[in-house]
Inverse folding.
């Protein structure tokens, strides 16, 4: 790989900092977090919840899984649920894999390996990080609701439907999020 | 259909006014036009170019085709070329059809009929409106370039590659757009 | 008309996609729809309500009326009610006519004809489209209120005061909008 | 005047902080200064240039003139040149006077007096502040051009056409602005 | 001082129009006022409240104090309370003095003198303007709350804690602001 | 620590997704990346460059260092160089430590440990991540310049002055960034 491709590879990921998380935009949040800010929030959640999990996780690796987990969206954009439901079964996942294959090997084999691990959901770290991804939506749901946004009931329902049973610290946060959200809405 | 579903149907289309045209965002345009503003621009292009076409088109119908042509994006969002290339052949088109089917009949059968006509590309009005869709990207390319945005070469290449031969007024505008773009870049 | 003026004419309308609807800005809506997105919303309303009107309207023409109805604002900007009340009687309307005269003939005679028809309010299509213009404000009022914006009582009062009696489908939507708005505020 | 009207009067001026300077928006500046930020910039210009003027001005009063000079735009919005040219002779000025009359006496007689002085252009402070208003456009023209915005030639022409001969420090700044603008464009 | 430094001095203050008031951003206000717009609001408050103060103030000078009072933030940015509490005692004030010293003398000795007076809090005009600074936060608190923002309780508490006893018109406005805020929250 | 404090701790970090990187704002970038998006970009850089470093680094830990390295800015905000130069020697660093102490232990001891390691610059991973922090500024400099922003020379000078000699892959990227930046500016 010529050195000259590294800047190209990094530049291809810059849209993550520009693209907003689509679901919030559609619901009328005026200035929602970017995809990159979301991925960062998932990393912080992994750092917060990871050390509470038993048996112990490799938390640093979970943080790295969080950092790459939405990298394909630099090409695919953040497809909201309304969009992915309209695609053929497996199409979104296949597109993510193809996008990752285009974006991550030019960064490093490690970046690609971390993404593959995330997508496969076979390791505990991968399944844990996936829950952090969903719980970060809950953190932002509470933040937007606290700041006055209304009409986010679908996000609340999605948070309530999340199965966190494998990791009890995730379950505890889920409950705290739902409780805070409901109190703000009452 | 109960009358009460009309507001729900109209509300489902409000995201068109909130969602930005994704390709410009990815390229760093700070405040690009929304999908709705794009659709409006295509309507204006149809009004501008339509009366110049021979033999005569039904221009009002072309304007209506323009108004609905991106309606599915209220569910699908504006998938940039980088995204649609990653989906299976035909998946984007099928998703658009399914989205239209969910969104437009609650508005009116006419809205659905206009969308179907657009997608089928069988009438001259439909093919003409499709060119207006692409040419509007060219109008914005010139506008963003004039305002100082750089790095939009892909959009310029895409404009240059457009086959406008069926409608000579479209071809004339394409040439004018390319000429203006090139002069701004020199 | 030299071909070279078409791009100039189209470029003169680009501000419609950039300028926000002023009334919402003044009331604190952080990212309201642009004038162009509003015009698109009016077109969609015409497609939704038009086919329900009896006797039948020329709905496609109404869509075209909607597409051009705010074109003068590319020069005049969206003057809020607080502004137009401060201008001499008839001044806003005269300015709109002059702006249209500068902007639309370079597009096409048809564009100008559609604007003239809209302004004259003599055809049923023109009066219907004018109601769609006002009702679109109501659709956005409900959308902004659902998303948490408050303090929009003036818009609610203006919606309630609208006389939709000529077109019963407009009247039905007005009632649905008012009912939804009031429920969201209770 | 009941004390309770003071908050109402201050709230009526809040749109100055929300409304962008329209001319820049129309030219594609993505996030231009608000009307309020402009007025503040004019105040700073008065503080910078005022002490250099001979014979001496009442600079503090000029700062106060700057603070109120665009207050009517809280009702009227910032009408760009393209708009005011379409209004009858004197209509914009009359509207500004009426808007000021509605907005400023509830603040204080002094606020109204400062606005009246500004509009009358009879004192040297008023004519000086009016030049500061135009020169602030020049400061922002240089700032936006330095940051990469292009297509602002009309603003440059307007700056060049300004007659600053009554106040030589204004003339010196005008020259410096034009020189900087031209160098940035070369 | 060479004339050529005036544009540099003015350009160094342009960030005031770009930088948002940080506290609102942190609380989720999507598009808060800029530092410059805040300074302008303080000027308007000085014009509103100043003439009501007895014995009489030099209101024009107070307006000039308001215009420069946050000028250092063009270098320092708007440090929220959470930030200044983390700095050593006196560090923020010393930084403001140093920033003013870098920014204001190139404008004029008068600009520097007005800033020094503001910071010293020895004159009644300076102490009055400082209250206007805090009360403007209250005006915006009411405006953002009216527009639907929630979660601003800290700002309300800060407004309630303000000691306005030296200037009874300030005290009256404080009460009106608190009353309006509480009513909006009930 | 009661479980109930976890949401409070996570909410305290949400401002990272809202606060823009200040330096770009001051230079006129209309919609720069947030602090959170920057931290994410640093994580990706660590994943890209880390595996190229010899002897091998613990790349996952470097990613975690990147994730927390700017966490204090949730309280302190992103102080630009112009601000930190005005603070007493060591004041910014001490404030960051105090902010981290307030923010991170409620997340987890690990989060705090990663921050402490970053700040101490004693491990190779910490020094490497610090370079990634600076190089991410270079990636965005190229991105903003490519998109048409001008006037960013200070950022270019800062990138050129960076000492990357400890990690040759960082040095290689620095050269590639400078070369791309210079070519875009020629």
């Amino acid at each position: 790989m010529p050195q000259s491709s590294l800047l190209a590879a990094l530049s291809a990921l810059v849209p993550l900092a520009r693209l907003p998380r689509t679901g919030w935009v559609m619901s009328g949040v005026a200035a929602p977090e970017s995809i990159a800010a979301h991925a960062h929030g998932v990393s912080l959640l992994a750092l917060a919840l990871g050390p509470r999990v038993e048996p112990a996780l490799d938390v640093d690796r979970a943080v790295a899984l969080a950092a790459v987990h939405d990298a394909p969206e630099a090409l695919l954009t953040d497809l909201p649920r309304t969009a992915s439901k309209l695609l053929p079964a497996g199409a979104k996942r296949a597109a993510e894999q193809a996008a990752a294959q285009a974006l991550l090997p030019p960064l490093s084999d490690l970046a690609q390996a971390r993404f593959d691990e995330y997508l496969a959901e076979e390791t505990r770290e991968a399944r844990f990080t996936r829950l952090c991804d969903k719980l970060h939506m809950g953190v932002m749901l509470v933040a937007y609701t606290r700041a006055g946004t209304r009409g986010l009931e679908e996000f609340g329902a999605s948070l309530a439907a999340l199965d966190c049973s494998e990791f009890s610290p995730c379950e505890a946060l889920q409950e705290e999020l739902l409780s805070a959200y409901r109190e703000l809405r009452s």
Summary: Chain A touches chain B at residues 14-15, 18-19, 22, 25-26, 28, 75-77, 79-80, 82-83, 86-88, 91, 94-95, 98-99 (CB under 8 Å). The CA atoms of residues 146 and 184 of chain A lie 7 Å apart. Chain A has a mean pLDDT of 96. The radius of gyration of chain A is 17 Å.
